[in-house]
């Protein structure tokens, strides 16, 4: 077993796991109703059914590569960078292996050999040059906060939108700040707000991701002890170690402590909740459901169902296979069509779903947007 | 004719999507067995029975070996492309074709996963008769071709017994239907009609005589009530007598799953209990059916167990059997098999009275091959048992060493009266030893697949 491969160090770290895999194929296209799983891998279900795109396929390729077998690195890169990163394969593995983590290691190795497929290279260039994966100028980032009275000098909490809210859905960022301010929070932000590194990490550039996280942490030193409230669920891992919580978690806490009081303007519409896969099985994912339930909003899908199947916004899918990403989004919209409004826990997913929306599809809102649209707020007096 | 598979596929079947890069083919090299990998030249994920027929007809003309893969979960290497060639991946041929509630028959394409089938039948209050433990990933066609067993075996015996009829493509591309559907327009409603049972040719056939493209199965009502019970015995001999007694009394009729565990497994699940206080053999039963009938049978089972020196063993039920059952009805021990390492799994049929001999064989392997961890368990059938002997090994360092151990163990199992069950390549040598029987198989093979393209190596053919 090649446990110490000088040429593929990231993969070598997984060699025990690679040889433990039983080739049971659960991570390929298993159907497991009791676990809410209907065909595990969204890439196979919506883009291309060949197993080389699945968790098991990545493990098999990693093993072969470590063993020095011949393979076309460009083909491998295409398969590897298409993965959405939903993590479904890890949820389903009966023996607890980590095919998605192996995919991340493969990405790292391929990047080290400059094998990023063209669309991924473009994203990485954008991250390197402009600190965001949307190809937008860095200077455009603060636009989301224009005319918002942020308290930069003595903030009670720092709001951090993340790239998706800042660039693709500023309405979420503004709504989040509105709710927080309505609860009496002196909301501040970061001057020259940096990316946390989540997009780079997702694409396998672990070095850039770590550098961004470190830069953000340094910036936080200036605000020692101040809590960060963020919108992007994908930012969660990068913010680990900092006093951070998602907007949903903040909201739940504020309602629980009575800091935030919300009164519906009329009867809020029935909603279907889309949890997304970024924060699965964490309090952050559950928070949106808990907030809406607490506020008496009727939820069409109270139980999490098929929760891991990606909407197409994740990983390399939107860049590598836009048509596949669109099919995933349409499937997600159809799955949640039981309600006139879908509330999404993850702003990046919401932006992606919105782009795929057709007339007649449910309306879309993030938690903050939904609250601002249907509730009046008051702070504890 | 040319032998380069991708060349003739591209030239003669241009509409078919062919996988040829090594990255795309790595996942087809192995299945969940210990059998050494084979390296295919190409793979096709088929979309229709017609595509299967066209592929076989052309492969036959080119004498290209063809292997068939469903979920790839079989532990005997049936889908491993030992002779290279082409892999036909039928997992993409996975539609539910018909639920005929009136006739009590469901017809599916072979790539349908049991997980999907059970979910589709649940709203009707129906299920199928035998479901393997690997239901989320195993396909109906793979189960038919590999002789599945598992949930339902105590009531219904083998998966083969639940098959009403099939559609299969022969090596030269001809399509046949078996059972009553052999008559055009009649459909599937009975297995036996018009002469011998041709359905059986493809059941347990490991894709050596044809490729299954449709499977018709009997439907059964979902049980009203389900409950588990475990009985402990001082030794496997008394355990075997109890099993024989319950089989002869037809008390398997409401048992959906039954498994027998040896002393080591029992101790591993109840580490706090002193070994002396624990039974040396235990049988877990999962009963299902109408409330009153299940209660009636439970009472009889308790009495029978006491008569055979057994006792109620709720500790094992709570610590293991029921827990697994509750996690997932068909997922009894899947994760346990692989939790620490990969395993080589030999499944055989055995008469119930050979149960103690099977467990003694497992013990002998422990002494003989101490580098591997050995385990043994039996699955209850309506008649007889299926016995699993498992060697856990480290894939990275022991994979070669485990091969002779598996072969030697297989030999011993046959010597004590066991019969290879899921055969594939793992048991090929033992199948070949069955002189006249194997000769007849070879004759059939020569007739139906004269070029020998279908799954060379499986069943020793
Ligand atoms: C841990 C573990 C536990 C298991 N438990 C059980 C169990 O409880 N009961 C049980 O029965 N099995 C069990 N199995 C074995 C396996 O899951 C079953 O045999 C299953 O039915 C195989 O289905 P598959 O789709 O994975 O078949 P594959 O492995 O893909 O194929 C099995 C055989 O059938 C052939 N084949 C596949 N599709 C076709 C087709 N359409 N036409 C013709 N031939 C075809 C293949 O060539 C191969 O020879 C277990 C395996 C493992 C690893
Ligand atoms: S992370 Fe999701 S998309 Fe990627 S291989 Fe796993 S299941 Fe498929
Ligand atoms: S589910 Fe786990 S053990 Fe099974 S093939 Fe995938 S990684 Fe391997």
Radius of gyration of chain A, in Å, reads 21 Å
Which of globular, elongated, flat, extended, rod-shaped describes the shape of chain B? Answer: globular
- The end-to-end span of chain B amounts to 23 Å
Strand ordering within the main sheet of chain B: 14-11-13-12-16-17-15-18
Side-by-side strand order of the widest sheet of chain A: 4-3-5-6
Classify the helix fraction of chain A into a percent range.
Answer: 40-55%
Number of domains of chain A: 3
Number of strands of chain A: 11
Instruction: Quote the distance from N terminus to C terminus of chain A.
Output: 65 Å
In short:
The complex is a heterodimer of chains A (381) and B (461). Chain A has 381 residues and is an alpha/beta fold. Chain A has 19 helices and eleven strands.
Question: How would you sum up this structure, described in words?
Answer:
The complex is a heterodimer of chains A (381) and B (461). Chain A contains 19 helices and eleven strands. Chain A is of the alpha/beta class and 381 residues long. Chain A has three domains: 9-116, Fumarate Reductase Iron-sulfur Protein, Chain B, domain 2 (Orthogonal Bundle), CATH 1.10.1060; 142-252; 260-379, no CATH class. In chain A, the strands form four sheets. Chain A has a four-stranded parallel beta sheet with strand order 4-3-5-6. Chain A has a three-stranded parallel beta sheet with strand order 8-9-10. In chain A, strands 1-2 form a two-stranded antiparallel ribbon. In chain A, strand 9 (341-344), helix 18 and strand 10 (363-366) form a beta-alpha-beta unit. The longest helix of chain A has 16 residues, at 206-221. Chain A is globular. Chain B has helices at 5-12, 22-25, 49-62, 114-121, 140-146, 153-156, 199-202, 236-248, 263-269, 291-307, 314-327, 334-338, 355-368, 395-415, 428-432, 435-448, and strands at residues 18-19, 42-45, 66-69, 86-89, 96-100, 105-108, 126-128, 163-169, 175-177, 211-221, 225-233, 255-262, 281-289, 311-312, 342-350, 373-380, 385-393, 419-420. The longest helix of chain B has 21 residues, at 395-415. In chain B, helix 1 (5-12) crosses helix 3 (49-62) and helix 13 (355-368) crosses helix 14 (395-415). In chain B, the strands form three sheets. Chain B has an eight-stranded antiparallel beta sheet with strand order 14-11-13-12-16-17-15-18, with helices on both faces. By secondary structure, chain B is of the alpha+beta class. Chain B is globular. The A-B interface holds A 1, 15-16, 19-26, 28-35, 37-38, 49-52, 54, 56-57, 60-61, 63-64, 69-72, 75-76, 79, 92, 94-95 and B 19, 21-24, 26-32, 45, 71-73, 91-92, 113, 115-116, 118-119, 122, 134, 136-137, 328-329, 331, 334-335, 337-339, 341-343, 394-397. The complex binds flavin-adenine dinucleotide (FAD) and iron/sulfur cluster (SF4) (2 copies). The site of one iron/sulfur cluster has 16 residues of chain A, from helix 4, helix 7 and helix 8.
